[in-house]
Amino acid sequence: MSMTNKYLNNVNKRYPQAVKSLSILLKEDFRMWKKIRNENLVKTFFTRPEFRYLLYYRLMRSNLFLKILFLPTKLFNYHNLYITCQDIGGGLFLEYAFSTIITCKKMGQHCYVNQQVTIGWNGGGAPSIGSDVHIKAGAKVIGNIIIGDDVIIGANAVVTKNVPAHSVVVGCPGRIIKTRESIYDSWKKSDIKL
After folding, report:
1. Beta-ladder partners of 101
2. Cis link prior to 173 (omega < 30° from 0)?
3. Could you give the angle at which helices 49-62 and 22-37 cross, rounded to 10 degrees?
4. Considering Cα of 15, then 21, then 120, then 93, what sign does the dihedral take?
């Protein structure tokens, strides 16, 4: 089995949210925001425009009526946050999210995206992103690539090639500087070109 197929199989196994209801996804999203911000739902809704946009995104994807109802919210998107993804797992956290574009095939559960991040197309397709992935400020994840589970993409990194699970990627072009065997292990230094 090729390395790409191995990553695809791993990413596909991690997407049980396709059968989850909207309420479960919303609960997972709020649980992640509460864990990081330690705020109640009302305060989070009124003080965090990124959370509101994520809520509107989830509601608009759920049915046509809500999509039409919340369409005007796109006109008042002063943060320039754009999400066009077919399948995003629960627990997405958007830190500030100013000038952030998320265009991917899939995004797993419990992902963390900072401001000025671009996740997008490059001719051949859009990325597939695993679960527990952190994408730091200004990073670019471009093309028909696969980002494995438990990956950290450093600030301003440019990633255009597949990234195996349990890796830390930095630089332009991206290179792996740390790896580990599982999410419970410590990081070990490495230097692997992508």
Report:
1. 82, 118
2. yes
3. 170
4. negative
pTM, whole model, 2 decimals?
Answer: 0.80
Q: State both tokens at 37.
A: 């911000």
What is the Cα–Cα distance from 144 to 60, expressed in whole angstroms? 26
**Within 10 A of 28 (CB to CB), how many other CB atoms are there?**
18
Q: Are 178 and 157 in contact (CB under 8 A)?
A: no
Domain extent at residue 99: 3-193
State the total domains in the chain. 1
Asked if 137 and 157 count as a contact pair (C-beta separation under 8 A), the reply is no
Please give the pLDDT value at position 62. 77
| CA–CA separation, 9 and 154 (whole Å) | 25
- Whole-Å CA distances, 30 to 1, 115, 134, 161: 38, 19, 17, 32
DSSP 160: -
CATH code, 22: 2.160.10.10
Residue type for 88, please? Answer: I
Whether the Cβ atoms of residue 190 and residue 177 lie closer than 8 Å to each other: yes
Residue with token string 């066009």: 84
pLDDT at 168: 97
